[in-house]
Amino acid sequence: MTTALYPGSFDPVTLGHLDILDRSASIFDRVVIAVLENPSKEPVFSAAERVQMIRDSLGERKGIEVGTFNGLTTDYARQVGAGVIVKGLRAVSDFESEFQQALMNRRLFPEVTTVFIPTSLRYLFLSSSLIKELSAFGGDISEFVPAPVARRLGDRFGQRRKTP
Ligand code: PNS
Description:
Oligomer: single chain
Shape: globular
Strand order of the largest sheet: 3-2-1-4-5
Bound molecules: 4'-phosphopantetheine
Strand content: 15-25%
C-alpha cells in the first residue's frame, strides 16, 4: 500500500492541480493532498478557505484525503505515512527548483521518493498566480479552475474591485 502526498500552496486549486491529483490517484493506493498553511508568498486565501475549495472541487472523486501542514513537507509525509511525494511539472523551468527540493527532501527523509508527473498540455501555462491576476482584472477564469473556485474568486475580487 503506497501513500502519495501531493503538497502545495493551492492558492487556489486549479484544473491543472486536479489533473495531477487524478493521475496520482490512478497510480497510488492512497493520495493525501496537503495545503501548506503559511507559504512564503503571502496567500490570498486562508488555509481553511483553500482546503474548503479543494473539498468542494473534488466532486465524485473518492478516497482523496485533504490535509494542512506547516513546516517541512517531509515531516508531514512521515506523519501521514507517505512513501511518495508527488509534484506536477509544467515546463523545464519548474524542474531546477523541484529537483533541488526533491534531493533535499530525500536527504531529510531517505525513505520518501519524489515522483514528478507532467501536466496535460492543456494546462501547461496554468498557475494559481496567473489565475489570481486574471481574476483581479476581471478576466474569465472559468475554463481554468473548478466551478467552486471560480465562484470564490469572483466573490473575493469582485468585492475588491468595488472597494474604492
Ligand atoms: O504550490 P507550491 O507553492 O509550488 O508548493 C511548494 C511547496 C509547499 C510544496 C514547497 O514550498 C514546500 O514543500 N514547502 C514546505 C517547506 C519544505 O519542506 N521545503 C523543501 C525542503 S527545504
